[in-house]
Structures are given as structure tokens and as C-alpha cells.
Amino acid sequence: MSDSNTTHEAPSYDDVNTPVIVLVGAISALVTLLTIMFVQGLCYHWQNSFLIRNASGVEAMPSVVQIEEQKEELVKAPVPISLAMEEVVSKYGK
Q1: Helix ranges restricted to H, the chain
Q2: Is the pLDDT at 62 greater than 90, yes or no?
Q3: Residue 58 above 70 pLDDT?
Q4: Buried b (16+ CB within 10 A) or exposed e, 57-77
Q5: Which of 10, 19, 40, 90 has a CA 20 to 30 Å removed from the CA of 1?
Q6: Contacts of 59 (CB under 8 A, 6+ apart)
């Protein structure tokens, strides 16, 4: 028969070790934050190196060349409208 008046203590392995759980949670949060910051910095670095590498090819694009030529023409002395009309007709007319 069992005696109902005796109290049994729970074994120590059933106890939750709260300080260790808090410490592990804080360390994992810190490692996660550092990992996110590292990956974000790495992505920004890759993006900047990609942009710098491709920036040199922008000057050779046909549209950029044509825009630069048009800017140079705008700097020249103004042309009378009648002369400009004759140049356009001779260049694009049939």
C-alpha cells in the first residue's frame, strides 16, 4: 500500500533552467542580427561593384553618344530658322 502522506520531490532533471534558456535566446538573437547585417553589407558591396564595373560601358551606348553630339550642337552659335529648315529638308527630305 502506498502512503498518501509522503511527499515526493520532483527530480532535478525536470526543472527548467531559465538562465540558460535566456542566455541561449540572447546569443541566438545576436548571431541572427549579425548574420543579417553581414549578408546585407555583402549584397550592398556586390551591388556597388556591379554598378562601378558597368558604369564604364555607359559612355559607349549609342543613345549616350547621340545625346552628347546634340549637346555639342546646342553649344554652337544659333542657326537661323530658314537655314535650319533647309538642312533638315536636305538631310531627311525625299
Answers
A1: 18-55, 62-75, 81-92
A2: no
A3: no
A4: eeeeeeeeeeeeeeeeeeeee
A5: 10
A6: 65
pLDDT at 2: 57
CA 80/CA 77 separation, integer angstroms: 10
- From residue 9, give the alpha-carbon distance in Å to each of 6, 15, 50: 10, 11, 66
Cell 530658322 -> residue: 81
Identify the DSSP state of 17: -
Q: What is the mean pLDDT of residues 70-91?
A: 86
Q: Please name the amino acid found at residue 71.
A: K
Using CA atoms, how far apart are residues 92 and 89, in angstroms rounded to an integer?
Answer: 5
Structural Rg of the chain based on CA atoms? 38
Backbone phi and psi for residue 40, each to the nearest 5 degrees, phi listed first = -65, -45
Place 90 in a pLDDT band, splitting at 50, 70 and 90. Answer: very high
